[in-house]
Amino acid sequence: MDNKRISEIVEEEMIKQDANRYRDMRKILTIPKSIADEFDQIYEDTEEYQKNVAQMFSSMQPYFVLESYPEILHWLEDDVKNTNVVLAYLAGKALGVDLVKVGEG
Fold first, then answer.
1. Does residue 33 carry a pLDDT above 90?
2. CA distances from 48 to 13, 24, 31, 45 (A)
3. For residues 28 and 66, which has the higher predicted lDDT (pLDDT)?
4. % residues pLDDT > 70 (the chain)
5. Cα dist. 61→28, 73, 79 in Å?
6. Contacts of 36 (CB under 8 A, 6+ apart)
7. How many CA atoms lie within 13 A of 56 on its CB side?
């Protein structure tokens, strides 16, 4: 194999790696709009001193009765990852940044 062919193979591989890196960067966490709306309302109704999301979940103190929100309960039970998405969503609200995209539904 000559040097020119090796260079072409290396360049092709680098292009593939760049494409994979770009694809990975496009992975975005999403939460259904209906679920986000309910969590927004819960968050807004929460006292200011209770809005430390990490403390809220690590202490396992119930700041709202989950059974009162059947759509949220069903969504959380649907996939174990959804709890982490909610944490990221609420943490973003607490920080004032969008960490999770609100999608359809």
1. yes
2. 52, 36, 24, 9
3. 28
4. 73
5. 29, 17, 22
6. 89, 100, 102
7. 19
Q: Which residues contact 46 (CB under 8 A, 6 or more apart)?
A: 63, 64
User: Considering just the CA atoms, what is the radius of gyration of the chain in Å?
Assistant: 21
**Token pair belonging to 103:** 């999608």
Place of tokens 């807004």: 44
Extract the tokens encoding 67: 């059974």
Q: Which residues contact 22 (CB under 8 A, 6 or more apart)?
A: none
Give the Å distances, CA to CA, from 10 to 3, 22, 64. 10, 18, 56
- CA neighbor of 82 nearest in space, from 64, 65, 62, 66: 66
Whether the per-residue pLDDT at 96 is higher than 60: the answer is yes
Distance CA 52, CA 11 (A): 48
